[in-house]
Amino acid sequence: MAGTPNDFRTPMARARGLGAAKHGVGHFIAERVSGIALIPLALWAAFSGPMLAKGDFATAAVWLSQPLNAVLAAAFVVVGFFHLRLTMQVVIEDYVEGFVGKSALLMLNLFVCVLGAGLGVFAILKVALLGGAL
Amino acid sequence: MTEATPGVRERPLSPHLQVWRWHATMAGSILHRGSLVGLYVGALILVGWLLSLAAGPDAYATYKGLLGSPLGKLVLFGLTYALFFNMASMVRHMIWDVGRGFQPKVADTLTIASFVFAAVATVAVWLIAASTGAL
Fold this sequence. Notes:
The complex is a heterodimer of chains A (134) and B (135). Chain A has 134 residues and is mainly α. Helix content of chain A is 79%, strand content 0%. Chain A contains five helices and no strands. Chain A is elongated and about 75 Å long. Chain B is 74% helix and 0% strand. Chain B contains four helices and no strands. Chain B has helices at residues 24-55, 57-68, 70-97, 104-131. The chains are: A mainly alpha (134), B mainly alpha (135). Chain A binds chain B through residues 6, 14, 32, 35-36, 38-39, 42-43, 46-47, 49-51, 53-54, 56-58, 60-61, 64, 73, 77, 80-81, 84, 87-88, 91, 112, 116, 119-120, 122-124, 126-127, 132, 134, and chain B through 1, 33, 36-37, 39-40, 43-44, 46-47, 50-51, 53-54, 56-57, 60-61, 64, 67-68, 76, 80, 83-84, 87, 90-91, 94, 97, 121, 125-126, 128-129, 132-135.
């Protein structure tokens, strides 16, 4: 690098623009707000589990057809995958070094979570609106 | 711009896991992340359950049989613990986020409380399941 104009750039000048993308705070807050929302939703889901485990198809279909259960289940799935996407993103960013591999996993994470939430909500709507009938 | 500057030593790596003495907050940190990865799979299992319910009685019976098998129950038991631990541990992190509870004793107590809460809540859910004959 000797003899090039780069010699005169200070370390600070070289570091500028390479730092954080300034999206960290939004991520941090979204992760915590969705986490708080998931506390009552997950408690509701966990304590609904035994009842559903005891029953059969009809029990589950009737249960999910009730408006409150359908809405809470949809909220649990959507907020859950939103939260999982944010938190898994941090895990990937922490452990995967290469740019291509990291980008691929981050995209896969996004796609899996969007697909999971979409499939979940569609299944809930189908059962809730058609009463489990085919 | 990205090549290493000559004469600058390699940056030190952070110490590896095995040089640390095990303590509560370390176990809590690892299990917090581990439980998250588990719950990621758990969310996909939940979506599978919803899809089987939407697909009809036969698919539902097959899927429920899978979840009700010994291995299925073991996975669900682990996921119940992961769910409750992640929940309690997140509250613990939020206490730290507002700048409180950093004294080693308090931090350890919060972490052990998270483990205990998760154990109690998990046993409670499975006792309810057992008492209603769901198992």
